[in-house]
Amino acid sequence: MTIIETRDLTYSYPHASKPALKDVNLDIEPGEFILLTGPSGCGKTTFCRTLNGLIPKFYSGEMSGTVRVSGLDTREHPTMMLARHVGLIFQNPDNQIFALTVEKDIAFGLENLGTPKDEMLREINWAADSTGIEPLMSRATHELSGGQKQRLTIASILAMHPEIIVMDEPTAFLDPVGAEHIFMVLDRLNKEFGMTIILIEHRMDLASKYVNRIIVFNNGSVVSDGEPSEVLSRDSIRLLGVGTPRVLELSRRLESHGFGFDGLPISAEALYEALKPRLSSRGTKHPVDMGALDDYTGEFHHHPAIQVKGVDYTYPGNVKALSSVGLTINHGEFVAIMGENGAGKTTLVKHFNGLLRPGKGSVLIDNVDTSTTSVARLSRSVGLVFQNPDDQLFEETVEKEVSFALRNFGFKESVVDSRVKWALNLLDLNEYKDSSPFTLSGGERKRVALASVLAWDPDILVLDEPTVGQDYGQKERLRHFLMQLRIQGKTVVVVTHDVEFVAESKPKIVLMARGKIIGEGPAKEIMTCPKKLSECSVAQPEITKLFAMLSKHGLPEDVLDVDEAYDILVRDLKEAGR
Amino acid sequence: MSLLESLRFTRGDTAIHNMDPRVKFLLTMVFFSASVMFLELVPLIVVFIVQVPLVASAKVTREWLKSLKGASFIAAIIFVTNMASFYYFRGGVLTYGILEYSLALTLRFIVLVTSFSIFFLTTSPDKLSLALEKARIPFEFNFAFITAIRFVPVLAEEAQTIIDAQRSRGLELDKGSFIARVRNYIPILLPLIINSIRRSLELAEAMESRAFGATEKRTNLYELKMTGFDYGTLAAAMLSILLLVFLKLYFPVFPKLLGEGVIL
User: Would an 8 Å CB–CB cutoff place B176 in contact with chain A?
Assistant: First the structure.
């Protein structure tokens, strides 16, 4: 029996010029674990909203065709009734937690359904147990970490016993280990209880190995549908800008080079098993000494741009966020600060332009002490771009938004004009210069926020989580853009959870955990140190996991990206074939 | 602000915390009426002496002291204005009687703060909402109340992030004339308002997905159930009210502690 069935589903949001969904025909069977993907704005979120009737009831707009969920037509049954069958979980956990304690929040849906108390207690315990949050039952919801909050939202939906769980980018705000946890919970619900799971996710590397079907949307239509490794290795899909998991990409390249696989491996483990019997026994050395290459940027001049000396910081209410942090970032360096949620990364970068002043110790920017200089003054040389563009956009037009800081800094009108033009061009925003920033998409808004900082051309650029909520294509553009800035000699500091992003851009890495710096070094060195990484909830990139296994066969272990992995493997496999 | 801050619920597992919120509210009202009915120092000291062990047994002494610290400024104003006004309007004489009266007024304020501290520090908003529900307040209002409490820390954090983001873009909040300063807040308020609207839409979506309003007969995970201790406390509270009324009616004069001598 088909559990979800859509027929000729077409939908347009009110006042929209073109439909968000066009002739979607899908059949989903019970027990499937499905990944929905596609470039930003492709209609995947819209599709999820049709599954419990939020579309068309909550959003109005024009809908034609039918959606049947568990045999019920979504148009004929109110959303609150469909809630028993489909549980929808959204991106931001904060906006779906209603109660003050964990236990009470899990109960919320059941209370609304009028479930008797003893049954309610049973369901709550089961849901908490299945998601692993049982030890947190009596905690206050606002004290939970991001990952715990997201697990709570799953438990709260689970308690209502839906047959289908739909999650819209549940891991966007989580560190890699927290994200892996969420996928493991979903995997368990799927395998143990046979739940149907539909997941929207940009973290292809982590997610794709759990699912058994991938549906790709583009411009509101389904463009591809099938088994993960098969769908993701189609050329048409790669051209769409859907990220291919790195391991799959490596397998695909090896295959096109003539190494046959029995179905393309998608996880590090599977590829390792496929490669193992064919490796040369002698091992292959690095083609170049990569260690020397990595120190390359900071090498010419050692002028410190940012010096952090023995800094302690405590938030009001006695929350210790930093303790004796010491760090030097030189001019021209590219640094990624990584670490678990709540490790103090954002607190640290807020010290760079004086938003926070150290409780103990000192922070020097170009040898100027931040505790005696105003934020406005420091910001001239340190541009800080915040994670969420919506926390700063407020002007009527994009052009005004980008000029805001320039006017604050008192630039001359002629200079303001030329700088705004320059920044809009740089970030490809020229066509939107007269639109309101609020009508733009998430990715575009993020670019406006970045442009509004780049406009005054700061020497040091600090970006907090620039890749969150960005699709693969947008991440690639950002990476190239940061490379450009590096070539111009700018100092770039990125706070990020995105290990794949780091693996490909290979910055110097600073690892943080519990308010301390626990490791610092070139990407290759840090990424091959699983003990340190796990201490701060950062996972190794999939490619590095593969090479950790391959290193037993004499291959190098410090391999981070697909290109290098491909080089080394081809060399070794050829050697073995000889 | 620190006064309000220190009234925030502190989790705990004491008899006071577990008391039925309705009984606890009645108890608070007893303290409240006691401090309003009497203007003499002696009965107020007695009330205060009764309150202190309650605070201690609820293990909220530190939070209570914080609330007193927050209240100390107002307490000082009460004391000083009383002393000063009596001094000027009663012909430049300061007696122990005036001192005692001013002390009583100040203590009355402290007793009031303490009684509300005990209530709010030890009553979880969840229980409060349950009590409201029992009082037949419609669930929608109740839900709004809980949601408001739930989002106070979230909004405070968001406001701080917005301020930080705009300051990073060179906004100087305390620069310029009064009008300019007011205008400086536009870049902070607009994102805050727009985010709140967006958030409320997301909340509504999430509520729908959690079957909000699916049935008229909503159930509740927690139930209020009066225990023997609650009944005991209820009886004690009732008796205290009778005692207070009796004292007020038939025992009009309390001994003065400090006498009537002249200080200045």
Answer: no
